[in-house]
Write a structure and sequence with these properties.
By secondary structure, the protein is mainly α. It contains 17 helices and three strands. Strand 1 and strand 2 form a beta hairpin. Helix 3 packs antiparallel against helix 4 and helix 15 runs antiparallel to helix 16. The longest helix is centred in the C-terminal third of the chain and has 58 residues. It starts with a helix and ends with a helix.
């Protein structure tokens, strides 16, 4: 039989066309590769065995095909683990790039704001007609703004690549939703704002003999000065980059344990979550930094707004005083803003003052509140003191009852009788008051019961009940086994007795 099968096989090989060996080899290689990689592939992945040119095509959830080279025979290739490691490494690199770009963008934004402040403060003292200092500083502000826009575009490019990698998509247009496009456009417009009045003056006069718009108080340049002032104030919108930098550089986002536990509990690591963590860990430090920064920034913005008017609020010390009393919602009325810009700054300061005061009250209340251990100790000592007071009050009631009874027996004066009755009623009132106080104290303590502790106690009780139930089941099973053995012994004894009786009957006969 074996010889016949071999002959049949050789005959088939001879009858096969010459070009059909390559597809057969390709299918064999594909089958071997499927066998080697079957543990690494997903359940929904498919292997295309039609190509035998050394490539295996894996079709996943995407519409495009991803090709990876076939490993040589004898080596086990774990394709999905390699892809996951590559994705994790690429995700880490993208996160580092995002963090670096965010830091650079924040640095460029702060540099532009510092140059704008320098330009505004140098304006009344150092700028003179015929100098190019204002043009140089404005060019520096524009250059920092251009760098800021480039950093923001690069940041969003990395963000889109990270989104594509997380979602396992290949088309970048999937990530470009209308909401994302709107936010990117709004961010670019907010960061592109900077004072450009110097360029307008150069274009109008055609020479460098000019003074910057904020220094010029002519009536012809009032609109230009107002526009320059508005653009300078709106440059502080760039400070929104602070919250992004805090988020990307926070230990909460960089910690793998935080991210893993948060993903299990469906927690989004946003700036709100990071701010809550900071307020819980360092509430006083966070509020102090924010209040000082806001105080200085709002004071300078107020001096900038009031600089066009000859008022007392154009000086920094007066603006610091006005912002402080407005922030604390005091408002003495000795100083008041005159321009619309100054009034808007004071209004925003008042709103932020109310919010920060509420947070400050919450922080102080949390700092002054007793923790669980301190509460238990405090209320335990109060309970002991109230119990002692109740015992003394009960003893006073008994003593006054005895004194009143003795006065009745001796038939003393009516004044002494009334005095003992009055003392008895007072002792009863004190006793009832202390009992009521003890009841309220114990009700409040019962509300302070630690729920996790009670849960642990109930879990221990249920575990003890389960153990006792299992022991009872084991005893019942052992009793059943013993009863079965006894019944079996009784049956055997009855059989033996019947046999013995049968033999005796036969002997008697």
């Amino acid at each position: 039989m074996s010889g016949g099968q071999e002959g049949t096989g050789h005959a088939r090989e001879r009858s096969r066309p010459p070009g059909s060996d390559e597809p057969h080899k390709g299918r064999l290689v594909c089958a071997l590769e499927m066998e080697m990689t079957k543990r690494a592939l997903h359940a929904n992945s498919k292997v295309d065995c039609g190509n035998y040119d050394g490539l295996v095509h894996r079709n996943g959830g995407d519409s495009a095909d991803v090709s990876v080279p076939v490993s040589p025979p004898g080596k086990r290739a774990n394709q999905m683990e390699g892809d996951d490691l590559y994705r994790l490494r690429g995700r880490k690199i993208l996160l580092e790039d995002k963090k670096r770009l965010c830091a650079l963008a924040l640095g460029a934004a702060l540099l532009g704001i510092l140059l704008m402040i320098l330009h505004t403060e140098m304006c009344p003292f150092f700028y003179k007609p015929g100098t190019d200092v204002a043009l140089i500083i404005n060019c520096s502000i524009s250059l920092s703004t251009g760098c800021l826009l480039i950093f923001i575009i690069a940041f969003h490019y990395k963000d889109i690549r990270l989104f594509i990698m997380d979602q396992n998509q290949v088309d970048w247009r999937i990530a470009m939703t209308s909401h994302r496009v709107f936010l990117i456009t709004l961010e670019l417009l907010a960061c592109a704002i900077h004072p450009v009045g110097t360029y307008w003056e150069v274009g109008l006069h055609g020479n460098s003999s000019f003074s910057p718009p904020l220094c010029d108080s002519n009536h012809h340049n009032t609109a230009l000065a107002d526009l320059e002032l508005l653009l300078s104030v709106l440059m502080f919108l760039r400070l929104y980059l602070v919250h992004r930098a805090v988020l990307l550089h926070s230990k909460v986002l960089l910690s793998a344990s935080y991210r893993s536990i948060g993903s299990l509990n469906n927690i989004n690591f946003t700036f709100r979550f990071v701010l809550k963590v900071l307020m819980n860990k360092h509430p006083a430090r966070t509020l102090l930094v924010f209040i000082l920064f806001f105080w200085l920034t709002a004071s300078w913005m107020l001096t900038l707004c009031e600089r066009q008017t000859a008022g007392s609020t154009e000086h920094m010390e007066t603006a610091l005083w006005l912002i402080a009393i407005t922030f604390l919602t005091v408002g003495y009325g000795d100083v008041a803003p005159k321009t619309r810009c100054g009034k808007s700054v004071c209004l925003f300061t008042g709103v932020m003052g109310v919010a920060c005061t509420a947070m400050l009250v919450a922080v102080v209340t949390k700092k002054l509140a007793l923790n669980k251990g301190e509460k238990h100790v405090h209320f335990f000592m109060l309970d002991i003191q109230v119990s002692k007071g109740i015992r003394h009050a009960a003893a006073n009631v008994l003593r006054e009852c005895w004194l009143l009874h003795r006065a009745n027996l001796t038939k003393g004066s009516r004044g002494e009788h009334r005095r003992h009755q009055r003392c008895l009623l007072e002792a009863i009132r004190v006793f009832r008051h202390l009992r009521l106080k003890q009841r309220k104290l114990r009700d409040y303590v019962s509300e302070m019961v630690d729920l996790p502790k009670m849960q642990m106690i109930m879990c221990d009780l249920s575990a003890n009940w389960n153990n006792s139930y299992r022991e009872l089941e084991q005893r019942i099973l052992s009793m059943e086994q013993k009863l079965e053995e006894l019944s079996r012994c009784f049956q055997e004894t009855s059989k033996l007795l019947s046999q013995v009786l049968r033999h005796r009957n036969q002997e008697i006969r």
